Amino acid sequence: MGLWTLLEGFLLLANALAILNEDRFLAPRGWSFSEVSGTGRAKSLKGQLIGLIYATQYLRVPLIILNVITILVKLVSG
Predict the structure, then answer these.
(1) Environment class of residue 3 by beta-carbon count within 10 Å: exposed (0-12), middle (13-18) or buried (19+)?
(2) CB 11 within 8 A of CB 67
């Protein structure tokens, strides 16, 4: 396993986090950002994970650019 494979794995994980819908998936399970920020548990592990999910959802445009670059590199290198 090389560095490129590891970077692709992290990119896939970021893609998975970016497509999670708050209304349909996160809120019914108690993973809403308003629940964590309202109760003051933002420093807990759950709060940190919810913050990571929202950060990846906020940075969708750079994520799209990274996906395009990855696809182009895969097309060129084979």
Answers:
(1) exposed
(2) yes
Pull the structure tokens for residue 23.
Answer: 């209304």
Q: What pLDDT does residue 52 have?
A: 86
Tens digits of per-residue pLDDT, 3-53?
Answer: 989 999 999 999 998 888 878 888 788 787 777 676 666 678 888 888 888
Q: b/e string for 34-71 if b means 16 or more Cβ within 10 A?
A: eebeeeeeeeeeebeebeebbebbeeeeebeebeeeee
Looking only at Cα atoms, what is the longest distance across the chain? 50
Sequence-separated (6 or more) residues with CB below 8 Å from residue 46: 31, 36
* Amino acid identity, position 16: A
